[in-house]
Each structure stands twice: as structure tokens, then as C-alpha cells.
Amino acid sequence: MAGRTFTCGLDAAIAVMGGKWKGLILFALQDGPLRFGELRRTVGGISERMLILQLREMQTAGLLHREVYQQVPPKVEYSLTEFGRSLNTALAPLGTWGEDHMDRIEAIAWENS
């Protein structure tokens, strides 16, 4: 993404989102901070390696904050930044659209598999 010129706002938003998992992570964090294990359980189907990669990318993009608590055992929590919350707000209507049309989308997916 560094140094890239975008053709429109949607192009820029998709570049930040980049794939399936980031949207699900944003959704999981909408109600407050979660620890790594809680996130992994909430975002079903994601591998530990992929979750680590996505969290790092999201932190670099400024979508989330990683808070490390100096205690034994160590505790790390992830939360949305204001930037991440604004993206979540922007994605909410898309999620509603997906819910409204889920049956149709699933039927199309089954036809094409």
C-alpha cells in the first residue's frame, strides 16, 4: 500500500480491508477489547498464524491498538482505534445488505461450486 495512488475511495477502502479476515476481526472488536484467544474463538475458521498476520497488518494500518500489560502471565488486548471504528461504521450497511441477501448469495455460491 505504501506509495500507492488510488483510483477512488472504494479502491482505498478495499486496500485497507484486504480480504476476508479483517472485516470479521473488526466486527469481533466492535463491542470492546479482546485477547488473542478470545479473538481466535470469535473469528471461527482462522488459523493462529493468519490471525497474527492480520492483526499485525491492521495495527500497521492504524485500525487497531495492541495493549501489552506487564504482568505474569503476560496479557495482550486488541481494540479498535478511532480509524478502525470509523471503518466498522462504514461497513455496517454492507453487513446488513449481506444479511438481507444471504440466502440468494449462498444459492449462487452452491450453484458455482
Automatic annotation (TrEMBL):
Keywords: DNA-binding, Transcription, Transcription regulation
Superkingdom assignment: Bacteria
Any GO molecular function: DNA binding
Tagged with keyword Protein transport: no
Domain HTH hxlR-type: 8-106
Gene3D superfamilies: Winged helix-like DNA-binding domain superfamily/Winged helix DNA-binding domain (1.10.10.10)
InterPro entries: HTH_HxlR, WH-like_DNA-bd_sf, WH_DNA-bd_sf
Keyword Transcription: yes
Name of the protein this chain belongs to: Transcriptional regulator
